[in-house]
Every structure is written in structure tokens, then in C-alpha cells.
Amino acid sequence: MGRIEATTPPIGGEARGYGATPRRVRRSTDTRDAPSTYLRALGALGLLGILASVFFVAAGAAGGPGVFVPGRSGGWPGWLEGPLHGLGLGLTDNEFQVWTLVMCGGYAAVLVGARALSLRTLALAIVAANVLLMLGPPLLSQDVFGYMAFARMGVLHGLDPYTHVAVQAPTDPIYPFIGWPGQHSPYGPLFTLASYATAPLGLGGGLWALKAAAVAGSLAAVALTTRAARLAGRSPRAAAAFVGLNPVMLELAVGGAHNDTLVLATLAGALALTAGASPRFRAGALALAAGVGIKLTAGIALPFLVLAPPQRRERVRTGLVAVGGLALVAAIGLIGFGTHALGFLDAVGEQQQLVAAHSIPAETARLFGLNGTPSWWRHCFVAGFVLVLACALWRVARGADWRVGAGWATLALLVSTAWLLPWYAIWPLPLAAVGGDRRLRAATLIFCAYAILIHLTLADPLLAPPKPHVIPHHVHVAALGR
Questions:
Q1: Residue 269: which residues within 8 A CB-CB, separation 6 or more?
Q2: pLDDT per residue over 151-165, tens digit each?
Q3: Contact 422, 452 (CB under 8 A)
Q4: Closest CA to 50 of 264, 241, 261
């Protein structure tokens, strides 16, 4: 009797819609799934657009010595052109612009549909894009050759890169590839010492090692940001797409083999360590201290992390660990470079005396009809940065999210500095991805769009021409831009 009751519809069930229930459930489910299907298709189309554009930019740049590979100034050897040269593609200004716009459009599509894609699909696309860019020549920058030059100076010529410049070793075969032969190393002692390992590899081996390091930093930053987002209750898929498929991250940072991806990995590591129900603020402080040992800019997030713990005692402990971590970095520098270990601070000061053609202070000075970029105008931007920094620190001290505060401070730094290089735009990406502030994410995307725009010919009527500025005589003059 129980079996009959369990399997037989009640009397009148058809009339009340009992038999129609499965059809209504299917229609309702289909209605709910339709937007997800469309978003998945949009996201997949965006991924295809990103991968296609990355491929054609990397392979096209490898086709021959063109303006998109500034390192061609030293020649066009096989180790520079890479394995994609054999495809016989080329890259004109218009083609570069079209493919870059396709990449940006694909990124927008992926951001909209990221939550409908699987994390595995996103991860495979991110890895594929990074590998394709690694196989191509260094794009839009000669910085990676500067890394090699500093390493070779120390290992092969006995010259401290914090007290000597590449022009003092003009017979080294890396010299023709360098864009800034009159500049001291602005990089921290951890990165400089680690880069020494590339000197015995020769020019080709050193370049490929640094390109692989940039890719490793990029992928580590994406993985750690994804973990931090999951622990913080954010969408890990959205975070992975936001950071890993960003055109500035791909085309400029990874494509140019910049060590900024390594700095981003330390920042993402700090985010992962401090997220979740049991945040480890002291371990996060050590991660950021290591980032300072790579590049000074990693330190902007450090005071925010120190203020993150709600208890004053834990703040004190985190601050002491941060100071200890910085002291350890300084000790390593002293072992490696003696009393000149902090020479990179002077080099950073040298850089801040320069004016990049498309920095916000320079562009706004042009809009207001000023003669060049006067010091007083730059000081106004610096004052604005200090004000934003102070307000953000005050808010975090009173309980605001340290990731959001650090993100706004980083953006303020990028807006205020007169020495803005476009790949710097990746700095706030992990903070914006993990923090819960939609305005911060939007502002970060707008700034990344600007960093891409200055490389496109369609922006020529809007932006100042890349003219060299008066800078110290010991620094090589080079204009930022195409």
C-alpha cells in the first residue's frame, strides 16, 4: 500500500497541474540557465579574442626588427627574435592597434562572463597567453636588457650597479641593446643579486631566464590573488580574469619581461596570507618586505597591512615584523654590496627627477598651456598624493579594509608621479580584485585603459607628443611612447 501511495499521483493531480510540474520546472530552469549560457558564450568569445590577439602581436613582433621591439637597436639575433619568427608574420602600426583593441574587447567580455566560465578554462587561457608572450621578443621596452646589463656589470666586470653605470662597460655585448646606459640600478638588492645568476648564461640564456621569471611572477600573482579572493569571499574566477587577462599585464608587463610581475607576486602573497578567518598579518608583512627587496614600490602597501589587525597589540607586532623584514633585506644587501646596498634609493630619486611624456602631470600641464612640466606643478600632484595617502591610512586605522586603502594610495601614486611607465598600471590590480570596492576596480580599469591608449595611434590627437625632457646629464635621454 505504501508503494502504491509513493508512485501513484493523487486523484485530480493532472487537473491541478501535478503531471505538468516537470515541464514547468524545466521551463523555469531553462529561464535561469539562459543568461548563464549567454555569459559563458560571451566569456569564451572573449578568451578566443585575447589569445588570438596575443598570438598575432607576439608572432608579428617576432617577424622582423620593428618599432615594437626597441631592443632591435642592438641587432636581430635568433635569441632575440624567438621561435615565432619562423611563422613569417609581421606587425604594422595599424595591425598592432587592431589586435590591441581586440585584446581589450576580449578582456571586457571575459570580465562580464567570468563567473560563468570554469576556473580551469580561465587558468588554461592565462597560461597559454603568458607562454605565447614569452616565446616572442620583448615588447615596447628595453628594461630587460638593463637587468642583464646590471648583472653582467657585477659578475663580469666587477662594477657595482649601484655606483657604476653601463656606459662604463661599453665593450660588453649587451651594451647596444640597452636603452638607459647612464642610469644606476633602481632595483632592490634581492632582485639585483638574483639577476647575477643570469650573467654566466650569455645574452640569449640571460634573456630567456628573465622572460621565464616574468611569466612565473605573473602566474604566481594570478594564483595567489585567486586564493586570496576565495578566502575573502570574492569570486575567484572574476579575480583570476581581472588580474591574469588584463591587457597591461599581458602585453606590457609580461610582453616586456618586466620585474614588476615579481613585485605583484609578493603583493598577492600578502593578500593570500591575510585573507580568510585566520589572517597571518606578520607573514604578509614579510612578503611585502621581500617585495621591497625587488622594487621599492612594493612598500606602499606595507603601512596599510600594519594597520590592518583590529587589535593594537597585533598591529605593533606586525609593525615590528615588518621592520625586521626590511632590516633582513638591508642585511642581505650589505653582504652583497657593502655600504652601497641602499644605492637603489638614490637611483629611484634620480628617476623621480625625470618626466615621462604621457604621465598625468605632463599631460595636464600641456592641457593648461604650461611651459613643459614645471616643478611647482609636479609638487601639486605630490601634495595630492600625500593627502590621499594620509586619508587612506586614517581610514584603515579606524577599521576600513586595508586592501582598499592600499589600492587607492597606489592609484594616487600612479596619477601623481611624473615618471609614469605604462606597465606600472598593474600595481593595484590584485588589491582591486580582492578588495570589495567597485569604485576602486573601475578606477583601476580606467587607468589601465589609459596605459594601453598611449601606445595606440588613435590617441595621437589627444596626447602630447613624446618629446625628451631636460634631465641630468648622466642619464641617457629617451622618450616614453612608441
A1: 220, 224, 284, 287
A2: 999 999 999 999 999
A3: yes
A4: 241
Centre a 10 Å sphere on the Cβ of residue 476 and count the other Cβ atoms it contains: 14
Domain locations in the chain? 34-459
Distance separating the N- and C-terminal Cα atoms of the chain: 83
Q: Which three cell numbers stand for residue 125?
A: 587561457
Phi-psi region for residue 82, left (φ > 0), alpha (ψ -120 to 50) or beta? Answer: left
Rounded Cα gap, residues 248 and 421, in angstroms: 11
- Residue 339 vs residues 154, 242, 293, 346, 478: alpha-carbon distances, Å: 15, 42, 16, 13, 31
From the list 221, 222, 140, 148, the residue with the least C-alpha distance to 178 is 148
How many H helices and E strands in the chain? 20, 0
Distances, alpha carbon 73 to alpha carbons 175, 178, 179, in Å = 10, 8, 9
**What distance in Å separates the CA atoms of residue 35 and residue 32, rounded to the nearest whole number?**
7
Under 8 Å between Cβ of 172 and 188: no
Higher-pLDDT residue of 481, 243: 243
The angle that helices 375-397 and 360-367 make with each other, rounded to 10 degrees, is 130
∠ CA 209-214-216 to the nearest 5 degrees?
90
Backbone angles phi, psi at 240, to 5 degrees: -60, -45
pLDDT at 6 over 70: no
As a whole number of angstroms, the distance between CA 122 and CA 128 comes to: 10
DSSP annotation of 275: -
Task: Give the total residue count for the chain.
Answer: 482
The C-alpha angle with vertex 144 and arms to 130 and 84, in degrees rounded to 5, equals 45
DSSP E strand stretches across 132-247: none
Is residue 155 a contact partner of residue 200, using CB atoms and an 8 Å limit? yes
Cα separation, 141 vs 479, whole angstroms: 11
Residues near 467 by beta carbon (within 8 Å), at least 6 away in sequence = 357, 479
What are the pLDDT digits (tens) for 380-396?
999 999 999 999 999 99
**Unique residue bearing C-alpha cell 618629446:** 467
Backbone CA torsion sign across 346, 348, 350, 353: negative
Contacts of 318 (CB under 8 A, 6+ apart): 281, 282, 285, 305, 306, 308, 309
pTM: 0.89
The residue type of 4 is I
C-alpha–C-alpha distance, residues 431 and 419, integer Å = 22
pLDDT per position as a tens digit, 311-326 = 999 999 999 999 999 9
DSSP-based three-state secondary structure for 290: helix
CA atoms within 13 A on the CB side of 230: 10
